[in-house]
């Protein structure tokens, strides 16, 4: 079975109503590869603006979700609330939340399970720091991050794994195609041995970390790279070129 190419745009804490409407108009008007699944993730305040204006066939993801369905959790947002608002995806585990907000593997795993149980698709982010890579701990770190989620859920049919080496996010550095493919292949091997062969065959593993219109086509040719999670470039017209990397 061929895995459908997947491109996500993580706007992070960027944008205004006007700029996000401009990005959406550009996407709505563009000729996008119909075989690529596209999801954009604006800041929470603009999720409904995005959902209201995006054309059919492009989905919207939250950048965060909480691990409880409701209650006295100031500032948080639940899977149920996202689903109720027509938001079909969420990110979990992004390194900026792991590092800046000290979110641990277990908490991220609980959030992932809550999102899946709530009917959302999850873009689960994993990745190592430069220090960990230089200590040859990349695979150990990434599989430990995945293992925490595996302890919470065995159904990976609505999970997209995003490998994002922390040292390449927003730095302009990018893992070589060989480095990225090597880690993606190890993730797929881990899925086969830990979850199931079906999960290994069908789970999309996408790459993030300074993806641009310049490097996306080479990365897209790798056997185990099934798409991209795009940061800064998703705010620019070149995002369309990245979506069409396989066209």
Task: Describe what this molecule looks like in 3D.
With 247 residues, the protein is α/β, with parallel strands linked by helices. Helix content is 39%, strand content 17%. The chain has 11 helices and 8 strands. Strands 1-2-3-4-5-6-7-8 form an 8-stranded parallel beta barrel, surrounded by 4 helices. Helix 1 links the parallel strand 1 and strand 2. Helix 5 (105-117) crosses helix 7 (138-150).
In short:
By secondary structure, this protein is an alpha/beta fold. It is 39% helix and 17% strand.
**Biggest sheet, spatial arrangement of strands:** 1-2-3-4-5-6-7-8
* Overall form: globular
Rounded mean pLDDT is 96
Strand content: 15-25%
H/I helix tally: 11
Rg over CA atoms, rounded to whole Å, is 17 Å
CA-to-CA gap between the ends? 19 Å
Helix content: 25-40%
**What's the number of extended β-strand segments?**
8
Major beta sheet, specifics?
A: 8 strands, parallel, barrel
Segments where pLDDT lies below 50 for 5+ residues? none
Secondary-structure element order, N to C: EHEHEHEHHEHHEHHEHEH
Structural class: alpha/beta
